Amino acid sequence: MRATLSRLLAVSLLVPLAAPAAQAAPGQTITSELRSLFFNGICDSIAKDDAVDCAKKPTACFLKDSEGRSFAPRTGFDYAWPFYPQSAYYALNNPAQRSGHPAPPAGAWDPLGQLSGIYFPRDVEADQHVLRVSSEQVTWFLAQIAPRPGDEICGAPAWRVYATLVKPLAHTLGDAYVYLQKKRALDNLDRKALVAERGDPAGRYEKLCGGWASEKRDESEQYARKQACEFWLRRAFVGQVKTIADAFATAVEPFDAGLAKKVRRATPKAKAERATPEKGRPFAF
């Protein structure tokens, strides 16, 4: 399971299920068919609890896959990977290819750009191949794709999907952000150290995230906490902490106002973000 998660955690970019922004966003308007295709990909990725007999316990089988078959989901951090930000990003690939919009330039991979019509250099050598999104792309995603709490997702209200499956992971991401802000680790990120000490247990950032993760006894939760911590360090690495933190708060607010407030209160009123390119070995997500 963790090997699978490690591969999926290669591009931690987007936000969990969220409510769309009220205002119009630049870019292409997504069709209902493509939007459904996006969510169907997520629904089909949710782990099914085969121990539950849906005929005997229909209320437990409150979700449906893309074929309309009811199932009971497995819960817990071991089964949370469909709701990691990067999993949502991967789920954009299929609808992007079916959108009819021009593909990114040769060698580039930008499903969000292709689907929205707002292209952005996501993978640049100067940023050690840490992927990025633009604020315009984030705005488009929130306005065009992300659901309202009352929308139906996987055959259930989005608020129930959030409360049952997404909330623990969302709080882990939010708590990691608050922790790193308290440690002043994001505004003062040492890019050279983050690259040079990657994977070194004695490295300052490995100890920073590892120490916070080890506060929990459950191994799966430890893993999720470490990945969440490293997600925000990568946002700082490419100078996009505020962009993603604001989007995260906007995303979860209709589902979880307390979490959104906590994230916003932790965000310092800081100067514009800027990342200075560093040379060295690739620091891929």
Write the layout of secondary structure elements.
Layout: H1 2-8, H2 32-43, E1 63-64, E2 70-71, H3 85-91, H4 93-97, H5 111-116, H6 135-144, E3 152-153, E4 156-157, H7 158-182, H8 191-196, H9 204-213, H10 219-237, H11 241-252, H12 257-266
Antiparallel strand pairs: 1-2, 3-4
Helix pairs in contact: 6-11, 7-10, 7-12, 9-10, 11-12
Structural class: mainly alpha
Please report the distance between the alpha carbons of the first and last residues. 18 Å
- Which sequence of strands runs across the widest sheet? 1-2
Helical content stands at 40-55%
Categorize the overall geometry.
Answer: globular
Tell me the strand percentage band.
Answer: under 5%
Largest sheet: 2 strands, antiparallel
Report the average pLDDT across residues. 84
Whole-angstrom Rg: 19 Å
Report low-confidence residues grouped into runs of 5 or more: 1-25, 274-285
The secondary-structure element order is HHEEHHHHEEHHHHHH
* Discrete helix count: 12
Number of strands: 4
Q: Can you describe this structure?
A:
It is built from twelve helices and four strands. With 285 residues, it is mainly alpha-helical. The N terminus and C terminus are likely disordered.
What's a quick, concise take on this entry?
The chain has helices at residues 2-8, 32-43, 85-91, 93-97, 111-116, 135-144, 158-182, 191-196, 204-213, 219-237, 241-252, 257-266, and strands at 63-64, 70-71, 152-153, 156-157.
